[in-house]
Amino acid sequence: QAQAGNLVDGSCVADGQYDGSVDYFPDKILVDFATHFEVTYNNSYKVVEVTAPGNEQKFVLYQCGTPVPNVPDADKYFSVPITKSVVAVTTLLPWIEQLGERATIAGWGTVAPYSPCTASLLRSGEIVDAANGFNTNYTTAEAIGAEIVFESFTPEGGLHPLAVAVTEYLENSVLTTGEWIEFMSLFYNKEAEANAIFTTMKETYECHERRADFFQGNNYSVAWVEWST
């Protein structure tokens, strides 16, 4: 038995309505390209593993309003969909915005964001400055009630219970890196949206790749010059 779609935007299973036979994640991802994360679905929780050497972590994401599962060797547990985060990796921002989750960013934990909208929210104080130089100030993250901190792996970040290491920077191609939007979607239950976004990204990339292949052997020599008087 499955519900119509994943619960998003902070939605929880209502009190007394949990049913162990229901698949609460009918919208799923299938990792086809990325090499440094995996996900396994159960009816009311997902087990997400970051497998990059030296950055290995195992997270359990359980649907809000359902029992907290007991998963062997799990490092951390998070209730999803999350509603309040600190973002400490600039490269994650486009994916969060594409998923429609900018409003869940409560704190910014690294150098200034390049997104004009997010930068404006940071200047106005709607997003709290939770950075300590290039690192995250976890005291601030806790004070603003962040449920999770997205960051690249650091000794402090790896050990802190709020931290999730996002290691897309260790991938080696456009598609292996781009598929990490699906990783991010797991925390918002927005797998359906991520699947659609990544499919478009993949088709666009493959279109350009075919065009590049067409011109193999028909290359032009180009000279760049500058006019000087």
TrEMBL record:
It comes from Pinguiococcus pyrenoidosus. This is Uncharacterized protein.
